[in-house]
Every structure is written in structure tokens, then in C-alpha cells.
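QUALITY CONTROL LOG
STEP: pairwise intake check
CHECKER ROLE: data steward
CRITERIA: each record must contain a sequence immediately followed by its C-alpha cells, with no blank fields

ENTRY 1 OF 2
RESULT FIELD BELOW
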Amino acid sequence: MNETRSIESQADMDQYAQEIARLLDPQCRVEPLPQNASLSARIVDSDGRALDLVKCDDRRLRVRAQLPEDASVKAPSIRVSALTPKHVASHIRRRLLPQHAEALEKAEAEKAAGEAEQRARGAVAERLASLVPGACVNPEYPGPRHTTVSFQRLEDPEDLEFTGLIWATVGPRGDSVELEIHALPEEAEHALRGLASLGGWCTRKGDPAG
């Protein structure tokens, strides 16, 4: 009959994690958790994929899959009785690893889509800046899906007083652009009128810029 593994110290947890890791893959290694959680360990495979093991108060383990820090995908986790290493490894392999692989795939797709959108958004901003006299591309603000193009007074290059703003929002596939225009200076009107003929572009008037 299986009995709950006695894990009373960090050394016990490290040994337990080592035994589980070897059953998952002989190339796995065990590392301490960066958060220094008590009675915990991290199992890392040869590809750098990590699983965090934390001893729960109810004689169970929580095993949580690690995803890239910037991923919005929820990291999968399971609870499993702290029985033999074989028991824990079997549950990880059967229940958690498929979820981990799926979550990593979604995170990678999300990252690739975000990078493609960022490139498309940057091209839009550069296009605007090249068409409108006195325009410059600003750092992305306030969110990761917007880029601003602002305008300065042409008669005085040292005058940084705010005179206009365009939000360029690129669609998820980079095939559409919405321009929201605030306090547009007169010199930009002619250049932006030409954008109306470009497929997938639309404009709308925003609130007056302050």
C-alpha cells in the first residue's frame, strides 16, 4: 500500500524531486525555486522547460508548469498525492505535460502574432511620420497595441508644445488600421487625405487634445 512520502525538510524535498525528475527524463535537473518557497523544488528538462513542485499542507504536492514571463496564457498546474516518485511522475506525465505543451504552443503563437503586429504597427507609424511635415514617432504608449505619431510646431523646432496626436491601431492580422485623430494641425490634412484611398484604413475624429 502506498504511503505518503515524509517531506519534513528541504533536503527531503530535493531528494524527492531528484527521484521524480529521473523518472520523467534522465536528463532533467533539479534547481531551487527563485522565490525560495519552503519545501519546494524546480525540475528543468533538457529543453529548459520547468515544473515547480511545492509541498502543500494537506500531504499533497502542487506541480505548476512554467511559461515565459510575458505570456498571457494561464500556466497549468495539478495537485497530486505525495506518494511514491513513480506515482507523482505518472500523474505529471499523464495530466500535466500535455497541458504544458499546449500552453507553450499557445504562448509561442501569441508571441509571434504580437511581434508581427508590432512590425506592422511600426511600418504604419513610420509611413505617417514620412508623410506629415514635422511628425515624429513616439515610444509606444499607453498599451502594447498602439503607436503614436505626434506633431510639433514647424516654425520653431525647439518648441515642444503639443499640437496633435494620431493613434494608429493595427488589427490582429496586420491587415487593417484605424487612425484616431486629435487636434490635427493643418499641415497634416493633405497627407492624411491620401490615406483614405488605402485599403483597410479608416479615420475618425477624436476628442480635442489637451
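ENTRY 2 OF 2
RESULT FIELD BELOW
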Amino acid sequence: MTVVEFRVNEVFDIPARGGLIVVGETRGGEFTGIPLLHDATSGKPIRILAVDHPTPRTRRTGETILVVDRADAPQARTGQVWTTAGQ
């Protein structure tokens, strides 16, 4: 299985949205469907609710937008790395 990493670049907490909006870059491949990720440092699972639609910015930069459960806010910090490794 190919290991895909997601590096968190920005986090937005927009009250009208169902979760945190996390913008980041993927390494090692692309996500198919809703990925099963965990924090690369702590091993804690990250509850991904959705992969959001691309925006003009993410089309230009190649970033991905994930909607993440607000309960995972401690792991949703700029610079954090989430991974599919170990699944």
C-alpha cells in the first residue's frame, strides 16, 4: 500500500461549516474517497468528514481541503503531518 502524507498548511474554523476546514499538501500520492489518516507523531486518528471541493487557490497550488471533526482540533495545527502509514 502506498503511504500518503498530508501536511497541514492552514486551519479555518468557520462556525457555519460542519467541521474544521484544513488546507494542506499531500505527498506520496492522492486520496481516493475519504482518507483514513492519523497523526504521524502521536498516532491519534484524525476523523475526516469530507474532502472539500477545490477552490481557485487549491487548483493553483495543488493543495487539498479536508473537513475534519472539531474534536480533532489539537491535531489540526499548521505544520502537523497526518499519514496513511500503519493501516
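INTAKE CHECK: passed for both entries
DESCRIPTIVE NOTE, ENTRY 2: The helical segments are 56-61.
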